[in-house]
Amino acid sequence: MGAKDHKKHSMEDISFALVTVSDTRTEKNDLSGTIIIELIEKAGHRVVDYGIIKDDMEMITAEGERLLSSEEVQAVIFTGGTGIARRDVTVEAVRPLMERELPGFGEIFRVLSMEEIGSAAMLSRATAGICNGKAVFCIPGSKGAVKLALQRLILEECGHILWEAGR
Q: What is the CB-side half-sphere exposure of residue 152 using CA atoms within 13 A?
């Protein structure tokens, strides 16, 4: 079966959880979170959980564990904390929760980012994986990065990822 045949089996009406990781953002100024929610809903999916947490390893891991154990959530997006600054610990907090990593997600994200922002794309540690049959994405928190990740990767493949993970 080819990729086009597999995509026919993509899940629809996906329930997403969104976690913004930031020491400074609030619901009033989380423009990237707002963009993510709008794109998910425009694509016919739902955001069933949304929150903002600090750049803190234990808090991020605990939130990931909570969301990945929820029967209501099918996919989790962490936005922010994926760079190389000392406080950027999202990847370190979430990666141990993954049963399988999808290295192609980060690789393709950086290639697409390179087209938009140039060599600074190498500073992103965007990653994705599977945990408990759910898709998990860690993406940068800039407005451009979330649009790129959602429009070109996550919304295009999440249904297929979930179908594959459930086989």
A: 17
Any idea which residue has 């079966």 for tokens? 1
Q: Is the pTM of this model over 0.85?
A: yes
Residues 138/112/104/144 CA torsion (nearest 10 deg):
10
Distance CA(92)–CA(85), nearest Å, equals 13
Largest CA distance in the chain: 47
Interatomic CA distance for residues 114 and 77, integer angstroms: 22
Question: Phi-psi bin for 54: left (phi > 0), alpha (psi -120 to 50), beta?
Answer: beta
> In terms of Cα–Cα distance, which of 37, 72, 27, 24 is closest to 147?
37
Domains annotated for the chain, with CATH where assigned, are: 3-165 (3.40.980.10)
pLDDT of residue 147: 98
